[in-house]
């Protein structure tokens, strides 16, 4: 039962981290695409790459933090 609880916490941490990271990445990617004057449809690609990269990093770290915290209790 403790493993299911821990797995649920880590999964929730990854999901929340991915959501927050995606939102931050979309805002930051849009800002950078406008700032550096990325041409045409490459803006969408640039924003997408930034969004996915940021979501992956935030999700990874929040999931790892949840795993560490779950192991302490």
Automatic annotation (TrEMBL):
Which InterPro entries does the annotation name? Answer: Romo1/Mgr2
Question: Where is this protein primarily located?
Answer: membrane
The organism's lineage is: Eukaryota, Viridiplantae, Streptophyta, Embryophyta, Tracheophyta
Q: Which GO terms fall under biological process for this protein?
A: methylation; protein import into mitochondrial matrix; protein insertion into mitochondrial inner membrane
Q: Which PANTHER family match?
A: REACTIVE OXYGEN SPECIES MODULATOR 1
Q: Which GO terms describe its molecular function?
A: methyltransferase activity
Q: Where in the cell is it found?
A: Membrane
In terms of superkingdom, the source organism counts as Eukaryota
State what protein this is by name.
Methyltransferase
Instruction: Offer one Pfam family short name for this entry.
Output: Romo1
The protein's UniProt keywords, in alphabetical order, are: Membrane, Methyltransferase, Transferase, Transmembrane, Transmembrane helix
Give Gene Ontology CC terms: TIM23 mitochondrial import inner membrane translocase complex
Q: Which organism's genome codes for this protein?
A: Hibiscus syriacus (Rose of Sharon)
Question: Member of which family?
Answer: Belongs to the MGR2 family.
Q: Which residues cross the membrane?
A: 12-31, 51-70
